[in-house]
Design brief:
This protein is an alpha/beta fold. The chain is built from ten helices and eight strands. It has one domain (about 10-260): Rossmann fold. This is NAD(P)-dependent dehydrogenase (Short-subunit alcohol dehydrogenase family).
Length: about 300
């Protein structure tokens, strides 16, 4: 980072041992923050557990002159999430930034998805984001400052195949972030989302069965995880004091402000509507504004710049 914009601040990064989380942890430390690296070291599907990834991230931070602390509690349980926040207070005496990055994948086509695959992904992504944010909320309220940075995904904002659990969780995080921003703005607390594009464990499982898929994966490999770290560092800093309730996407060297749901078109009938009249009049008037069944790769169809 070019300046110590978070000097003296304390940050928690969940899932901070690998991929995007590692790069955000390193960048926050480089910006002057003391970082709690929360990572239980599980596989992409949430199995196993080891502190090794977090230890490697901590070593990188300390070799560069930064300061970091490891926490291995799970975000997917309320009592455990409270321990994550407590570890920051116990170690550093304060908390200023929470980056909700922890995540797993259990990709399955919808009609074959198990209840366990649904619940596990929702627990880590959506419930985990709520638990850690809620645990930090009282601290932020009392000190009248704080920044939440949540990782969403274009799989939720736009759509994708075989990811109904992940997509639902990631879109839920957007609504949660906006609610936090509305509820806590009066306390000087901010909440924003990043939809990252990056080659990481989360994308390493993408299929490469066709030439088109190979081309897409090759393009994604150029989008290294560190590209997203700068946005997270900025949103956590006082430079972003006027940025609240927003959704950003970072795609290599591009930054997008993503839309939020608003009315597109309307039709009115003074006597109300019957099903037949909806079919004959309302739908033809509205149809030109329908969204097509696109996935993220269809919308972001150009090569990353």
């Amino acid at each position: 980072m070019s300046s110590a914009i978070n000097c003296g601040k304390v940050a928690i990064v969940t899932g901070g041992g690998n991929g995007i989380g590692r790069e955000i942890s390193i960048a926050l430390a480089a910006s002057g923050a003391k970082v709690v690296i929360n990572d239980i070291g599980v596989s992409l599907t949430g199995e196993g557990g080891s502190a090794t990834p977090a230890e490697e991230t901590k070593r990188i931070i300390e070799q560069a002159g930064g300061e970091a602390h490891i926490n291995t509690d799970s975000v997917a349980d309320w009592e455990s999430a409270k321990k994550i926040v407590k570890s920051a207070i116990d170690k550093y005496g304060r908390l200023d930034i929470v980056v909700n990055n922890a995540g797993i994948l259990r990709d399955t086509i919808f009609h074959k998805m198990s209840v366990d695959d649904w619940r596990t992904v929702i627990d880590v992504h959506l419930n985990g984001t709520f638990y850690v944010s809620r645990a930090a909320a009282e601290i932020f309220r009392k000190q009248e400052s704080g920044s939440f940075v949540h990782m969403t995904s274009t799989s939720g904002l736009i759509g994708n195949f075989g990811q109904s659990n992940y997509s639902a969780a990631k879109l839920g995080i957007v609504a949660l972030s906006k609610s936090i921003a509305l509820d806590m703005n009066r306390f000087g607390v901010r909440s924003n989302c990043i939809a990252p594009f990056a080659w990481s464990r989360m994308t390493d499982s993408l299929p490469t069965d066709t030439p088109e898929q190979v081309k897409r994966v090759d393009a994604m490999k150029a989008m290294t995880p560190d590209k997203n770290a700068h946005m997270a560092v900025y949103l956590g800093s006082d430079l972003a004091a006027e940025v609240n309730g927003q959704i950003f996407a970072v795609r290599n060297n591009e930054i997008f402000l993503m839309g939020q749901s608003r009315p597109l078109r309307s039709v009115h009938r003074s006597d109300g509507w019957t099903p037949d009249e909806i079919h004959e009049h309302a739908m033809p008037a509205l149809k030109s504004s329908f969204y097509s069944l696109e996935r993220s790769g269809d919308v972001f169809s150009w090569d990353p710049m």
